[in-house]
Design brief:
The protein has 7 helices and 8 strands. The chain is an alpha/beta fold.
């Protein structure tokens, strides 16, 4: 029995994949089940799907198959064109000044390979949401310090493990990282508002470097910028004793 879970722009949730696979295995036996997770669009990682025993069939795998298939069937040709258009748009971030959801996806997929770290996805909020990328997590027993791209903005954030000390940890981190940024002569600014809560933005900056004439992204200089801030937080993160 072959199970195919086709996800277009959503991800698996709860234990749905595990339940599907378990149901099939109870019917025909574990050795007779092949579970396939087919993703038309992209997602940051497939750890959960692989843990649930599914083989991943990517859009690129489908395109390869479609390109090897000779047909004059209008429905299949339209579908091939649709799948190709998704791949083309995801890969087109280098050639566009203004980015849409799929362009950001392509950029973040590129960063994952460059940094060999990080996850990304759409982050909803009351202001309409944004495409985000998060990485460089440094943890101690009191809080987590990390970097996040919020489309055009690079922010340094902390996640506090103790609600009663949110403001205290925020202030300590803000003063520490601002001073270290000045010493390193890198650009970091105070956000428009220092919030209070489990997750807080401490500092913010712009990171994308553009070609002066075309205004397209300079991917090499932008990547250098991101590595600069990655090294900055990794070399300066606050340890437990710094909060005492």
């Amino acid at each position: 029995m072959i199970i195919v879970e086709d996800k277009v722009s959503t991800k698996s949730h709860d234990n749905q994949l595990f339940r599907y696979k378990s149901y099939a295995e109870n019917k025909v036996g574990k050795e007779n089940v092949l579970a396939i997770y087919f993703k038309t669009h992209d997602q940051s990682n497939y750890r959960k799907e692989e843990k649930d025993g599914f083989k991943i069939f990517h859009r690129q795998d489908l395109l390869k198959l479609l390109n090897e298939t000779l047909t004059d069937n209008d429905i299949l040709l339209d579908f091939k064109s649709y799948i190709f258009s998704i791949e083309e748009e995801v890969s087109n971030f280098l050639n566009k000044e203004k980015w849409n959801h799929q362009n950001w996806t392509g950029f973040f997929k590129y960063l994952q390979k460059e940094l060999n770290a990080g996850d990304w996805g759409y982050v909803p909020n009351q202001n309409g949401g944004f495409m985000g990328y998060w990485w460089a997590f440094n943890k101690n027993e009191l809080c987590t310090q990390y970097l996040q791209l919020q489309e055009d903005d690079l922010v340094l954030k902390i996640n506090s493990n103790s609600e009663k000390n949110d403001k205290k940890f925020r202030n300590i981190c803000f003063k520490h990282y601002l001073e270290k940024a000045k010493q390193a002569a890198i650009s970091f600014n105070k956000p428009s508002r220092l919030g209070v809560g489990e997750t807080m933005t401490i500092l913010t900056t712009k990171y994308i470097v553009r070609d002066e004439e075309s205004q397209l992204i300079d991917i090499e200089k932008t990547s250098e910028n991101i590595r600069l801030y990655t090294n900055f937080i990794n070399n300066n993160f606050l340890k437990l004793e710094d909060f005492m």
